[in-house]
Amino acid sequence: MNVDVLNMDGQKVREIELPGVVFEAPISVDLMHQAYVRQMANARLGTHKTKGRSEVSGGGRKPWRQKGTGRARQGSIRSAQFVGGGKVHTPKPRDYSQKMPQKMRQAALRSALSSKAADKDIVVLDELVVSEPKTRIMAQALDRLVGKSSALILIPEKSENTEMVMRTTNNIPDAKILDANYLNIRDLLGFDKVVIPLKALDVLVAYLG
To answer: Could you state, in order of their start, the residue ranges of all structural domains in the chain?
Structure first.
């Protein structure tokens, strides 16, 4: 698949062929969904907790005698039916994490990238640079590159230049900077366009190819 390589002004510099092993892989919606559900589940802390009858304070004495009062028999004022009593069938701490083999996770990323490429949502840059750390400059560049669409911008590695790019992008609500090594299915599916500099493209091919 051939795509144009653009500069920061949105002008075509040259044309390259995207590696078919990454950007023309079979598209599996089920696999992408499984990877997405796994990532969202693994992000859950699972620290929710309520106290049961044996954990609330008080209630050590029988509130009234068993017979002769005309009232229902009770053994503790900390039973669930009393105010201040323990809770029944409520959340307890648990681990929500799911396992998924690395090859399946990589296949899901290839599937998502292939879907983006098929929809013309991959933007390849020759070099990601900004002259000064100002949000206005990056916002104007993104407007030329992706228009009004949201954008996920990949960087090959952290450097002095990429730190400047990250500072200029942090205040743009519909854009996110992400290290190419940490590409994940949630971010990939959560943005309209994926902006990939050539150096970051090499990192993707090395990881997913």
So the answer is: 2-45+99-208, 50-90
